[in-house]
Amino acid sequence: MKISPNQLVIIKPDDWHLHVRDKEIMKAVLPESYRWASRAIIMPNLVPPITTGEDARLYANRIKACIDKDINFEPLLTLYLTEETEAEDVVSAYRKKIIKAVKLYPAGATTNSSNGVKNIDSVYSVLGAMSEQGIPLLIHGEVTDPQIDIFDREAVFIEKILVPLRNDFPDLKIVMEHITTEQAVSYVLNEEKNLAATITPHHLVVNRNVMLSGGIKPHYYCLPVLKRESHRLALIRAATNGDNRFFLGTDSAPHIDKTKIDVCGCAGVFNAPFAVEILAQLFDNLGVLNRLEAFLSLHGAEFYGMPYNKERLTLKKTDIPLQMPENLETKEGKITIFDPLMEVYWQIVK
Fold first, then answer.
1. Structure pTM?
2. Is the pLDDT of residue 112 over 90?
3. Which residues carry out catalysis?
């Protein structure tokens, strides 16, 4: 890593939690990620979801078909865990290097999660096989009990589901995806092995006031939902303290505007276009720019047992704030780009 007052050179980052959708939207959004990322864990919650090794193989082929041969970008596929998932298929897909992990969605927790797990005990045979084979489990950590307040669902999940799960499978590698609370940060910090967490740019730079004050703003609606300021500050401490159990997962989740601005708008923030620039500015504002590379480029690779990327990414600090477009045009409609509501002076130059 090389830092000067106006320039930063880092190992090219990875995105350890990314939605690229499919078909025309995928063609439009992929370049926004491979512009700065060498690898990305691809989420499987399509319609229909990616539930088998063969599904993942075909999806990987569709993704690669959208990437020019001179682009160095590796999609890392995941399987969508259901109560019908077969352990043999998961292990086979992992051994053949078709998938890198398995994603657990509690049924109804987020976009396209209706096929998710209702009873965690029903997938114990799969989790046991994953533990034996070293296959990571990526968890959307929220309960879906309607009696539990939406702002408390992550904390309750940790207590009711995750703690017993880790007691039963201490050797299972787990990533708590897109954590949003002080409780999640504290839980990771107090565990010694086989546990990590991804943190998103939007949960680091805005809180729930942005979504709810002065009128509801649907483009800031995501799941897990934005939390209060004290939780945001806890996430910042986790992301910037150099602890290798925390790393970037953008959870960039594009939806065309007509599905976001609706009577039942979709959850998801599309932050891929300027995720690195926004985080560079945040770390710079906090005086910890020297820790940015670790969060973006090192910690995730270490957890997944993968080599650091060989390429480098250069960012330059300018005198004029970066002009971010409001949306991305696709053949299916416009997708609004995440606005961090702060001036960003860093930009990628190569």
1. 0.97
2. no
3. 251
